[in-house]
Design brief:
It comes from Acidipropionibacterium virtanenii. The chain is α+β, with helices and mostly antiparallel strands. The chain has helices at residues 55-58, 83-86, 97-104, 113-120, 170-178, 215-225, and strands at residues 3-6, 23-29, 36-44, 49-53, 74-78, 129-133, 136-138, 141-147, 159-161, 164-166, 185-192, 201-205, 208-212, 230-237, 248-255. The protein is 16% helix and 31% strand. It starts with a strand and ends in an 18-residue tail after the last strand.
Amino acid sequence: MSSTHVLRRPGDEAGPAAPQVSELLVMWQHPETMAILPIGRFGYDGELYTFNYTRQAAEIQGLRPLPELRDLHRTYRSAQMPLVFEQRVMSPRRPDFDDYLSRIGLLPENATPWEQIVHSGGTRVGDTLQFMQMPEVRNGRAHARFFANGIRHVPEMPRDVGGRVIKVTRDSQEAALCALNPGDLVELQPEHGNRIDARACLIVADGTPVGWVPMAISSDVRRLMSPEDLSARVARIAPASSPAHTRLVVDLDVPAPEGFAFDPEGMWDPLAG
């Protein structure tokens, strides 16, 4: 039986006006298979934070519930961000705070804890969690904004991109990344033979693979590709000194075929009824 659990701490207060991005997909990397799977939905309406585990979470062998969020079948609501997520927010007292905001494309006046996670992806070095804006179909178009995944791993082995085997060096990858500017087009192309994601899609800049589409939407992107590869636009490109997981943000905005929906199997649906 589903229920709602409200988290409260001393000093809880209502937040600011409702944010433009109100819900994020929380993804977890399995320590054995390395698959990155959508385990939760994290939302904020300007007053309350909410968290629900997904149907996918209930099917993952070896998944340990997040600290403070132990019950997979509850909806959690709180005026305070859950601590496991709050740990991903940088304090404005840190000397590198302004540099951090510049790197993630966030103005100081907008640097709320929620917006920090939206803009940074919420991932820490060595972490197993990452966050993505909830993809949607709106007015006949499929929209998704996502961080390029696996940038550090692209040069590890040759990549089969649409039947062409490409050997990417770190230098060639870095040159391709450095040449990108916001608004530039990148290609989304299928990768064959990926051992972690059978539906893997590479992000290709000027013929050079630079990262992957998140596994959570790779099958959906493959369906959008048929019969041709897709183009997307660079939303943000960070300097080479930035952590790899924050380096490249991509916007997908393409016509959606009739009946298309992200997550058609409903694995992102909340477990709590």
